[in-house]
From TrEMBL:
This is FGENESH: predicted gene_2.140 protein. Belongs to the DapA family. The active site is at 149 (proton donor/acceptor), 179 (schiff-base intermediate with substrate). SUPFAM superfamilies: Aldolase. The keyword Lyase applies. It comes from Rhodotorula toruloides (Yeast). Keywords: Lyase. The keyword Lyase applies.
Length: 318
C-alpha cells in the first residue's frame, strides 16, 4: 500500500467535519469560501475532515466530492504552517465498488486518510458478515489508510459493536481507527486497547474528557467549525491535566462549556452551524436542498447565540 506522509498512524487531536458552501439559489459549490474556512479551522489548531456528514457529502456528485477534497488540500498546502495538518476525506457510498472508487479518487486529490460509513440502504440485508466484508474489501483496495465511521443515525441504524469492530480491525491492517458517532463511551474504552496503532475518535466533543481518560486519539466535532481554538484548548488542557501538569478543574470547566455548546449546535444541525458562521464570520449560507435553512424567527436565532455565548467568549479570548 502506498503510504501517506503520516504512514498508517492517524495524528491524534481534534478534527472538524468542515461545512461545504454554495453560491446562491443554483447551489453551485463555493470553493473559495470553502478554502477560506478550511484555513480558519486549521489555524485554530483543529484538523480537517472533508466530506463528513456536516460537509453534506451525500448531497454532492462524484465530481463535486473530488473538487472539495482538492480544495481542502490546496487550502492547507497554500500555507506552510498548515501543510502538515492531516486531511481525512469521507468516501462512503452504498456499494463496495463505488466506495472504493471514491476512496481512490480522494487519495489522488490529496486526502491522507479515508473515512467510510456503513452502507445503510439495504440495512436489513447487512449481516455482521456483510458489514465486515464491506470494510475489508474497501480497506484492501484503498491506497490510503481507512477509518470506520460508525454512525447509526446516518446508516439506517447499523451500529457496529466493539466485537465486530475488533474483527474488522484484525482482518484489515489498513483500517487504522474509527469514529464513534454512536456516542458510546463504553465501546470507546473497549476499543482504545485494540491495537497500538488503532486510533479511536469520539463523534462528539461533549465527552472528549472521558474519551482522553480512556486513551482515545481525540474527537471529531462540528463545534470545530465555529470555535476551533476552544476545541483545541480542551484537548491540550485535558491531556495536561491527565499528566498532572495542569489543573483538572480548569479542564473540567472548559469541558462543561463545550458540552453545552455541542448540544446547542447539534439541535440545529448543518443549517444552524451555517447560520452561526454567517453571524460571526460573514459567510455560511444555506445547506443544499432538501435541507432547509435555519429558521431564526421567533427568537430562535437569538436563543442559539445566547446558548453559544460562553464558548464564543472563550474563543474570542484565545
Amino acid at each position: 500500500m502506498p503510504s501517506t506522509k503520516f504512514g498508517k498512524n492517524l495524528p491524534h487531536g481534534v478534527y472538524a467535519p468542515v461545512l461545504t458552501f454554495y453560491k446562491g439559489d443554483d447551489e453551485e459549490l463555493d470553493l473559495e469560501t470553502y478554502k477560506k474556512h478550511v484555513q480558519f479551522v486549521a489555524r485554530g489548531g483543529v484538523n480537517i475532515v472533508a466530506l463528513g456528514s456536516m460537509g453534506e457529502s451525500v448531497q454532492l456528485t462524484h465530481e463535486e466530492r473530488n473538487q472539495v477534497v482538492k480544495a481542502a488540500r490546496s487550502a492547507l498546502d497554500a500555507d506552510s504552517s498548515l501543510s502538515q495538518v492531516p486531511l481525512i476525506a469521507g468516501t462512503g457510498a452504498n456499494s463496495t465498488k463505488e466506495t472504493i472508487e471514491l476512496t481512490k479518487v480522494a487519495a489522488e486529490a490529496g486526502a491522507d486518510f479515508a473515512m467510510v460509513i456503513s452502507p445503510g440502504y439495504f440495512a436489513g440485508a447487512m449481516s455482521r458478515k456483510a458489514i465486515k466484508q464491506f470494510f475489508v474489501d474497501v480497506a484492501e483496495a484503498s491506497p490510503i489508510p481507512v477509518l470506520v465511521y460508525n454512525y447509526p443515525g446516518a446508516s439506517a441504524g447499523i451500529d457496529i459493536d466493539s466485537d465486530l469492530m475488533a474483527e474488522i480491525a484484525a482482518a484489515a491492517p489498513n483500517i487504522v481507527g474509527c469514529k464513534l458517532t454512536c456516542g458510546s463511551v463504553g465501546k470507546l474504552t473497549r476499543l482504545t486497547t485494540l491495537r497500538d496503532d488503532f486510533a479511536v475518535l469520539g463523534g462528539f466533543i461533549d465527552f472528549l474528557g472521558p474519551s482522553l481518560l480512556a486513551k482515545a486519539a481525540g474527537g471529531i466535532t462540528g463545534v470545530g467549525n465555529i470555535a476551533p481554538k476552544t476545541c483545541a484548548k480542551l484537548y491540550k488542557d485535558t491531556l495536561a491535566a491527565l499528566s498532572g501538569q495542569a489543573s483538572v478543574s480548569s479542564a473540567q470547566d472548559l469541558q462543561f462549556i463545550i458540552s453545552r455548546a455541542d448540544w446547542a449546535l447539534a439541535k440545529t444541525g448543518i443549517a444552524g452551524a451555517k447560520w452561526v458562521l454567517d453571524q460571526l464570520e460573514g459567510y455560511g449560507g444555506k445547506p443544499r436542498r432538501p435541507l432547509l435553512p435555519f429558521d431564526d424567527a421567533d427568537g430562535k436565532g437569538k436563543q442559539l447565540l445566547e446558548d453559544l455565548k460562553e464558548i464564543l467568549e472563550v474563543e474570542k479570548s484565545l
